[in-house]
Amino acid sequence: MIRHIVTWRLAAEDAAQRAADADGIKTRLEGLRGIVPAERIDVGIDLGETDGNWHVVLDSDFAGREELAAYQVHPAHLEVAAFVRSVTAARSAVDYLG
């Protein structure tokens, strides 16, 4: 199994807009369940109580490298990724064997 974890910092300065963008990311990524070849997709939004924390996290599992690679180029994922890029300022990711 490969665990794929991605975190984002949102670009919006306004707290209400940041919350809306975080919800948009969460809704879109969780909408990929059953569509892309992921074993599990969980999305969390930071509580906003600690300065410096990243705003949104994707925690997902894939059966292997082939499934992760297929996810990366899946049309539904690419559509979500375009939205995510439009509202984020920075991205960090880790893929590891779990």
What do you see in this structure?
The protein has 98 residues and is an alpha+beta fold. The chain has one domain (2-97): Alpha-Beta Plaits, CATH 3.30.70. It has three helices and four strands, in the order βαββααβ. It has helices at residues 15-30, 65-73, 75-87, and strands spanning 2-10, 40-45, 56-62, 88-97. Helix 1 runs antiparallel to helix 3. The model has no long low-confidence stretch (mean pLDDT 98).
Keywords:
39% helix, alpha+beta, globular, 98 residues, Alpha-Beta Plaits, four-stranded antiparallel beta sheet
Task: Quickly describe the structure.
Residues 2-96 form the Stress-response A/B barrel domain. This is Dabb family protein. This protein has 98 residues and is α+β, with helices and mostly antiparallel strands.
Tell me what the CATH architecture is.
2-Layer Sandwich
User: How large a portion of the residues is in β-strands, by DSSP E?
Assistant: 25-35%
The CATH topology turns out to be Alpha-Beta Plaits
Mean pLDDT: 98
Report the count of strand segments. 4
- List low-confidence stretches: none
Q: What distance lies between the first and last C-alpha atoms, to the nearest angstrom?
A: 5 Å
Q: Please, how many helices?
A: 3
Structural class: alpha+beta
* Morphology: globular
CATH level-1 class: Alpha Beta
Reading side by side through the largest sheet, how are the strands ordered?
A: 2-3-1-4
Rg over CA atoms:
13 Å
Which SSEs are present, and which pair or pack?
Blueprint: E1 2-10, H1 15-30, E2 40-45, E3 56-62, H2 65-73, H3 75-87, E4 88-97
